[in-house]
Amino acid sequence: MNQTQPLHPPGPAAPPPLTFYGVPVASRLLLGTALYPSPHIMSEAVRAARAGIVTVSLRREQARGRTGERFLDLIRALPVRLLPNTAGCRTAKEAITTAEMARELLDTDWIKLEVIANDDTLQPDLFGLVAAAEELVKRGFRVFPYTTEDLSAADRLVAAGCRVLMPWGSPIGTGRGLANPQALKTMRAYFPDLPLVVDAGIGAPSHAAAAMELGYDAVLLNTAVARAQDPVRMAAAFAAAIDAGRTAFEAGLIEPSDRAHPSTPVAGTPFFDLDPPRSGPTDR
Amino acid sequence: MLFVCRTGPERLSEPRNQKYDRQLMTPDTTRLRDIVLNGRPLSTGAETLAELVTEQGFAGVKVATAINGEFVAERTRAGTGLSEGDRIEILSVRQGG
User: Fold this and answer.
1) Is the pTM of this model over 0.90?
2) In chain B, what residues touch A35 (CB-CB under 8 Å)?
3) ipTM of the complex, rounded to two decimals
4) Where are the domains of chain B?
5) Do B92 and A58 touch (CB under 8 A)?
6) pLDDT exceeding 90 applies to what percent of chain A?
7) What angle in degrees, to the nearest 10, is found between the helix axes of A39-49 and A67-76?
8) What is the pLDDT of residues A6-61, one digit of tens each?
9) Rama region for A244: left / alpha / beta (φ>0; ψ in -120 to 50; rest)
10) Any idea which fold B6-92 has?
C-alpha cells in the first residue's frame, strides 16, 4: 500500500482556526474565575470546560498579604492564557491605569476592557469605552472590549484598533441569555471576519449554543458555571453545548419558515384519493 | 530607608496623638506624611513609593502601584517621592469575570 495515499478522501477545507490578535485559540469557551465555592472547584471547572483563556481581575492587596500571589500560583498551574479585566472601572482613566497595572503584573498586553456605566445594569459606557480603547491601543495593548450590539460604537472600536469585539448577551450576572438575538445576528453579518465573542448574561448551555449557532466565534461566561450546584459538571455541559453550537453553525442551519413543510415524501401517500378533504376539521 | 523607631518606656504608654508623638521622637530628617493607601488613611515615614511598598510588607511580592490614579511602574517606584495627601493603590491579581 502506498504510504502517501490518504485513507479517506479529503473533505471540504477546514475553516481557519480562531485567532485573537494572531494567537490561535483552541477553545471557544472563555471562563471567568470568580464566585466559585472554592479554588479547587474553580480549577476543576476550568479543566472540565476545556477553557483556553480565563479572566482575572486586579484588587487591593492587604498589607503583608499574599492573596494575589497564591491565586496566581493556582491559576498558573492551569493550561490557560490569562485575560485580565478592568472590572468595576467607571471612567476611561481608571480603566487605562488598571490595564497598565495588569500588564506589569501578568506580563500580557491583552486586556478585557470594561468601562461600566451604572450599577443597575452594569452596561458598558460606550463613550468611555471608545476613549479608553483608543488610548490603550496607542500604548500597545490588545484590547478585548466588553460592549453592546451597538454598531456605531463597534465601528469606533474597530477604528481605534480593536480586532475582537465582545458584545453582551444580557447584563452581567443575570443569566438571561441572548436578550437581543436579532441585533447579535446583525452584528455578526456586519463584521463577517472579525472575531466576535458573546460576553455576559449567559445562564444556560442552550444560551451558549444559541450564540454559537448565530456564528459567534466564542462565548465568555462565569456566573452560570461558578454558581451552578455542581460547577464542574456545568462547565462540561457548557463545553459540549459550545461544541454543538459551533458544529451546527459550520454545518449550515436551515432558515426558519412560517409554513409547515412535510418532511416525509408526499408522493405515494396512501388513501390520498379518499374523502374527506385534506384541509379543515374532519368528522369521524 | 527611614522608619519611625519607638523604643523604651514611651512605647508602653500609648499616646493619644500618635502622629505628634512620633514626630517628637524621630530625627529631623524624617517627616511623617498622611496619605491614603488602598482607601485607608495612613501616616508613613516612607519617602518614596518603593519605601512604602517595602514598609507594607511587599518587598519581592508581585504587586502593581498607582498614585493619584496614575500607574507607577515598578522600576520607577524608587524615584517616585510621596507627597502629603497622595492616594496610593497597591493591587494584586484576583478572581475575575
Assistant:
1) no
2) 95, 97
3) 0.85
4) 6-92
5) yes
6) 84
7) 30
8) 455 454 556 778 999 999 999 999 999 999 999 999 999 999 999 999 999 999 99
9) alpha
10) Ubiquitin-like (UB roll) (3.10.20)
